[in-house]
Design brief:
Growth Hormone, Chain: A
Length: 455
Amino acid sequence: MTTTTEHRGKRWIEHWNPEDETFWEATGKKIARRNLWFSILAEHIGFSIWSLWSVMVLFMGPAYGLSAGDKFLLVSTPTLVGALMRLPYTFAVAKFGGRNWTVVSATLLLIPTVLATIVLHPGTSFGMFLFVAALGGVGGGNFASSMTNINTFYPEKSKGWALGLNAGGGNLGVAAIQLVGLLVIGTAGATAPRIVLYAYIPLIVVAATFAALKMDNLVSVRGDTKAMREVVKDPHTWVMSLLYIGTFGSFIGYSFAFGLVLQNQFGRTPLQAAAVTFLGPLLGSLARPAGGWLSDRIGGGKVTFVTFVGMALCTVVLILASTSKSLGLFTVAFIVLFVLAGVGNGSTYKMIPAIFRAKAKVAITEGAEEAVELLKARRLSGALIGLAGAIGAMGGLFINLAFRQSFTDTKSGVPAFVGFLVFYGICFVVTWAVYLRKPATEPSARGLALAGTEV
């Protein structure tokens, strides 16, 4: 089978049918894996640059003249921009090609990284720091385009493994840059932030170069704006987006804020804070595939419900540890919270295709054509994954803004944790009410019972 075409330029694949077992085993699997590994590399570095300022603020001592509120605003800004960038990045794959957009999106990471090396010194205005931090938000968009691209390469039977690996590898970028920050603070001291930046500039170039040389575009990929228009009308969209705010929003928000909370709540030095902040994002990233694995076996709704109950309990412990000034208990509870958020990331993403497959089964039992309904389920689940990813990332903004206000008003993170506790309570109640309670008598889309299917 002819797989490449030159009329659109090099690295375009014209014929791609991963559901054809013969094609997949002979040709497709090797190509898909090659694209997956280099997509993970670019996305991993994208997450690192997105979370860059969670590390840079640890280097910004009294000479910078920034308050705790200023620093929380610095780490909030790229969160907001990254969330907003996810929707256009999702459509960019269909517009420009997965390989082409990976090259572009990786190269764009040079802009905030190089500018940070220029402005990162005492005396720079806070407005300039905010501007450069905002540019770092482009790294947050890489997740959406990477997931959209890899989704098109794999057959349905392998998408869970491929997307889980892609997402987990990207999430590890947060822990990686925090480990680099720890190494620099531990060896060169808290006055040498540019070493972190100098380490990442060549890595960005390497990622963009490998994407250009090793990845491919698929001619068959087209933007499906109709699916996005359909999915925004579905009540599941907003339920799942709410739940993803609670899981991924918590993961990325706490990843950015953990070090600052330790410094401001317990008076930790930059080195002391950096020595533990990487553990949360690391373990949370590794837990994400576990959430998907558990969901395959016992149902995503059940895993998500238990996850939110656990996150609420951890938040109660964090409040108690904060008021009793128990650093050890606080640190352990925070890291467990990261792990639960990672599990929830995997389970909520597993729920999305299960929901639409179940709705398709209801329609098929009512006489609809099977092939049409299953195709619709794939289209809508893909659109919702992109939309929920963008909305969920906004949770990271809310978390950092809540911490900023809490420390500004009370010099403590307790009021913010109380707010998070209420939100997690809402999430586990919604999960139970929508996906776990006894099915409605009619197998309607609105009922969400979905003919007894395990969501």
